[in-house]
Amino acid sequence: MLPKSPRNILYALLLVLLSVVFTSAIANTDYKVLDEITAAIKKTISKEVTDTDLKNSEKFIDANKSLGHNTATTTEAMPMFMTIIQGADEEVGCPNDGSTVARFNLCGDSDDRTISLAGAPFGSVSWEILGGSCSPDINEDCPETTNSCYTQVSTAQNYTLDASTIPSTTGAEFRVRVNGSGAYYYFKVKKSTITQTYVKQDFICGVPGRIQVTNLSSAYEFSIDNGGGFGPWQGPIFDNLTPGTYNVLARLQNTPDACEYPYEPIVIDQLDIDIDVTFTDAQCSGDTGTITVTANNVPGPYKYTLLDSSGVAQEFTAFIPDNPYTFSAVGFGTYIVQVETQQCTGDPLNGIDPPRQSLDTGGN
Fold first, then answer.
1. What are the Cα distances from residue 363, in Å, to 26, 211, 278, 357?
2. Shortest CA distance to 111 belongs to which of 175, 194, 216?
3. Residue 160 is inside which H or E element, if any?
4. Is residue 294 a contact partner of residue 322, using CB atoms and an 8 Å limit?
5. What gap in Å lies between CA 227 and CA 234, rounded to an integer?
6. Which of the chain's ends, N or C, has fewer CB atoms near its CB within 10 Å?
7. Where are the alpha helices (DSSP H) in the chain?
8. How far apart are CA 165 and CA 84, in angstroms?
9. 311 contact partners, CB below 8 Å, separation of at least 6
10. Angle, nearest 10°, between helix axes 4-27 and 32-66?
11. Under a CB-based contact definition with an 8 Å cutoff, are residues 276 and 299 in contact?
């Protein structure tokens, strides 16, 4: 069926033709004019149909471009004007072909990203990294398009960008294509780094844990779990922590759009002391035995105390790194051992003794 516009023109011309025929029949006019009118009708219809087909063809090509389909007749990639890569920190235009290149700016070795694609899922996906004889240029907006320089690294629908594998000196360059088309979508990755170290103290014997960020100057500020009761940004020490996993960020103070560096997840474990005791008996009157004490699960240094059955101290040490520790020359009798650390001290003023053990490993 003809489009609406050619049909309207045809109807008008037919009315003119009929008018001429009837007039000619009355006036006996030469019918050469009919041939001219017929030719005009054919020319008009042909032009309208051709213009309409061309417009429909252009719409088809534009639709294919938006879906990432290749309309080229060769194996070379057609320019992709809009990227399907999602979640980029920035999108830049390549002046060579007008294509869009996605950029990811990583902050440190723990700033991993999951890259997804608009329109997913696809029948097939190929993620590729630039290498070989080609080097990435993260300061250049246009991508490297040499096919021989790319190696496939994944065929998953999404790509996990491992920040620790990206060199901070050169960055990296990737591309992806879907459904086996010739259209490639490019993205570039750069990474800045700082020294990311910390010390932690676990939740030991009921004493709250602690995290301290180290090796950064006072020009930096820090956040834990997006505030988490500490305020949005503060100094490098977080204390009174319960057992759990914490996420710490560091950034320069008073710097707009400063890179926020995530640390690896920091786990505060709950640790409770466990005391193992072994002993050797005295064999004869006047002989002595030994008692060996091992403290488990908690860090030292340790303070060891040997008490009699009434809880009176018979022998003790200062805080020492030794573990296990042996009380030698122990006479006949029944004993209790006590082990203290910096955290495992009990609360004697409130009647809570430090950790003690009155049985050996055999239950004696």
1. 133, 39, 10, 11
2. 194
3. strand 159-161
4. no
5. 9
6. N
7. 4-27, 32-66
8. 24
9. 336
10. 180
11. no
